[in-house]
Amino acid sequence: MRKITAVVFAGLLGGSLVLSTALARADDDRRDVRHEWRDLHRDRQQLEQLRRQRDNEAREGDYGEVRKYNRQIRKLENDTYKDRRDLRWDDFYRYHDRDDYYDND
After folding, report:
1. Which of 26, 47, 59, 99 is most buried when burial is the number of CB atoms within 10 A of its CB?
2. Using CB atoms within 10 A of its CB, is residue 78 exposed (0-12), middle (13-18) or buried (19+)?
3. Which ranges of the chain does DSSP label H, i.e. alpha helix?
4. CB 84 within 8 A of CB 103
5. Where are the domains of the chain?
6. What letter does residue 97 receive in the DSSP assignment?
């Protein structure tokens, strides 16, 4: 009887650990998406700062620096556009991937 109880309790303990680990991983996934949106917001702020620096250099007449800032701005704009598009698609698929979305009963 003791061996059976030990096996049952070991199984319950293992199941609870697996379940809690799975729930923690699901929570971490959502948290990562929030961090990605926060990083995207920081990239936008950096983009605005680069634009201000470029405008300042243009006022001073240093067009070599202006070209350098334009390249950096163009690269950052492309990166933020791709990141924003990927995040929106991820959110779209996460919402539409639920089972209850496709229930037509």
Report:
1. 47
2. exposed
3. 2-60, 63-96
4. no
5. 2-98
6. T
Q: Are 88 and 37 in contact (CB under 8 A)?
A: no
What pLDDT is attached to residue 99? 56
Mean pLDDT of the chain, nearest integer: 78
User: What is the band of 47 on the pLDDT scale with cuts at 50, 70, 90?
Assistant: very high
- The token pair at 43 is 């990239």
Distance between CA atoms of residues 64 and 76, nearest Å = 19
Which DSSP symbol is given to 105? -
Statement: residue 34 has pLDDT above 90: no
Q: In sequence order, which residues have a C-beta less than 8 Å from that of residue 76 and are 6 or more positions away?
A: 43, 46, 47, 50
CA distance 20 to 17: 5
pLDDT band at 14 (very low <50, low <70, confident <90, very high): confident
**Nearest-angstrom CA–CA distance, 74 and 81:** 11
